[in-house]
From TrEMBL:
InterPro entries: DHS-like_NAD/FAD-binding_dom, MenaQ_synth_MenD, MenD_middle, THDP-binding, Thiamin_PyroP_enz_TPP-bd_dom, TPP_enzyme_TPP-bd. Residues 441-556 form the Thiamine pyrophosphate enzyme TPP-binding domain. This is 2-succinyl-5-enolpyruvyl-6-hydroxy-3-cyclohexene-1-carboxylate synthase. One of its GO terms (molecular function) is manganese ion binding. It comes from Oceanobacillus profundus. NCBIfam families: menD (TIGR00173). Binds 1 thiamine pyrophosphate per subunit. Residues 211-407 form the Menaquinone biosynthesis protein MenD middle domain. Catalyzes the thiamine diphosphate-dependent decarboxylation of 2-oxoglutarate and the subsequent addition of the resulting succinic semialdehyde-thiamine pyrophosphate anion to isochorismate to yield 2-succinyl-5-enolpyruvyl-6-hydroxy-3-cyclohexene-1-carboxylate (SEPHCHC).
Amino acid sequence: MDHIEKLTRYTANVVDEIVKSGVIDVVISPGSRSTPLALTFTEHPDIKEWVIVDERSAAFFAMGIAKQLDRPVALVCTSGTAAANYFPAIVEAYYSRVPLIVLTADRPHELRDVGAPQAIEQLKLYGDYPKWFHEMALPEATPNMLSYARNKAARAVYMANEGNPGPVHLNFPFREPLTPDFSLENIWENPNATDEMQTVNTFMDGEKRLSEQQIEQLVQKLADGKKGLIVCGPQTDKRFAQVITELALKWRLPVLADPLSQVRAGSHEKDHVIEAYDAFLRNKTIREQLEPDYIIRFGAMPVSKAYLFYVKEHAHVKQYIVEGSSGYREPAGNRTEFIFADPVMLCRAIQATSSINEVELSWLNRWQEMNQISKKHLLSGKESQVTEGEAVRGLCEVIPDQSTLYVGNSMAIRDVDTFFMTTPKQVQVLANRGANGIDGVVSSGVGAAATGRTVTLLIGDLSFFHDMNGLLAAKHYKLNITILLVNNNGGGIFSFLPQSNDKRHFEALFGTPVDIEFKKAIEMYGGEYMQAMTEDHLKELLAASYLHEGLSVIEIKTDRTENVTWHREKWNAIEKEILQDWDG
C-alpha cells in the first residue's frame, strides 16, 4: 500500500467517524498542509463545509454555529500561525462552554525545530483551554491504525460535549504528497477489520442529579428563609425557563433574569420575572433594604455590575449556585454551596417535594413594584435623535418571533440588560460572554445566521471595526442577517467609568475614536446600508431589513457624553420614585 492510499484511508476514517458522531458542520480555512483534511471533509456527503479565509474569523464563525445549534462544529486549518489565529475563539469557547473540534494540520516530526517554513510548536498550542489534546499518529491504513483513527475522532466529539462543553484539539502531522485519492474503494470504512474487532469505542453518559435525601436536605436548608431570591444568569438550555418560573410561582419568589438566561422571552409565565433589577440595584440604599435570606443562582454570573455589588454587600447571606456538571463561577468571593446537578431536573425534584416555603408576600411584591417603576421610566419618552437605549428598546419591539438576537459586549450587552423586557416572542439571546471580549463578534453573529435562523446582531462601532472581515462570509454565502450598528465613535462604556475624568489621556487610551464611514465598508461586502435618525425611523428600517435578503446594516450615530447623561437621568428618576415610595 503506497503513501497516498494510507493517507486517504486514514484521513477518511477520521472524518467519517466525526460525522457519525454527530458533527454536521465544518469550517475550513485554506492552506496546503491541511489538504488531506480539507479535501476529505469536502468530499464527505453528510457534512456541510464552510470556507472562511481568515482563521480568526473562521473560529468565531464556527462558534456562532455551535452556539445557535447547541452542537459541536469542526474547524480545519493549516500549520503555523494559521493555528495560532484560532486562539481567541478557543479561549472564548472554553469559558462560554461551546463545543468545538479543532483539527490543525502540522509538519511531520522531522520538519519540526529545523527551520522549516510554517513549522511552529503546535503541541498543546492552546495550553489548558482545550478539554482534551491529542497528537495524532502519522497516517497508516492497517486495521488497527484505522481503528485508532476512528477512536480518537469519536473521543474528540464526546469530549467536546461531555460535562461542560468546550473545545478539543487534535493535531495532525502530514507528510507530502498531500492530495488524497478518492477513486479508491471503501475509503469511508475500515474494510479489513474483523467482526470480532471492536473498531470504535462508544460512550454512555448518565444524568447528573441529587438523591432524594440530598433534595430533602436542600429544601430543609431553605425552609426557614422567608425572603428567598432566584437568580438566572447566562445559560442556553431551552427547557430551563418553563421549570424555573414554575418553581418561582410555587414558592412565590422573585426571579432576577439576566437577558442571556433565556427567561425573559418565551411563552412561559413571567409574573415573577424581574428584568429591570440592574436599574434599581444601582442605588446603595435600595440594595441595603433588599437583604434576602438566601440566593439560588442558576447559570453564570449575571451581566449586571449592580447585582455584583448587591451580592458582595450581602456576603453573609446563604448562597447556592447550581452548575449542570461542574465549575466554580463565583467572582464575588462569597461563601457558597455549589450544587452540581442538571438544573431542570433539580427544579422538578424540588417542586415534587411537599415542603413549600412560608414566604413573605411583601418581599415578592416589593420586587415587582420596583420592577414596574423601573420599566415605566425606561420605556417612556422619545428623543429627537435616537439614543442607544432607545435603539435596543425599538429593536426589541420589532424583532421577529422565532429569531435570535446576538449581542456584542461592552455597552451593547448592558443596554440589552436594561432595555430588553419580557416578551411572549421566542427570541434566543446569545453573546460571547465567556471572556467578554469585543473580538470576533461579527463572525459569531454571521455564523449563527448560517444556520438559517433569523439573526439580528447588535454591536458597537469598535467591535464592528475589530471584525469587519467577518462580513465576507455573509457576502460569500448570501446569508441573511440584520446588524444594528451603534456608533458612538469609540469605547462608549469607558465614559461611564472613572477613567472618563482624565481629560488629558481619555480619548487616546479609552475613547479611541476610529472616525470611519462604515457605509463604504458595508457596501464593499455587498451589504445594504441605512442610517436611522429616530426610534420610530429605526423600527421602520429594522422591519424592512427582515424582508431583505442578504446583509443589512442599520447604523445609529450617538454622542458618548450625551449617552451617559441620558442613562443617568433614567436611573436617577427610578431611584427617586422608589425611595419616595418608601419614605411615604
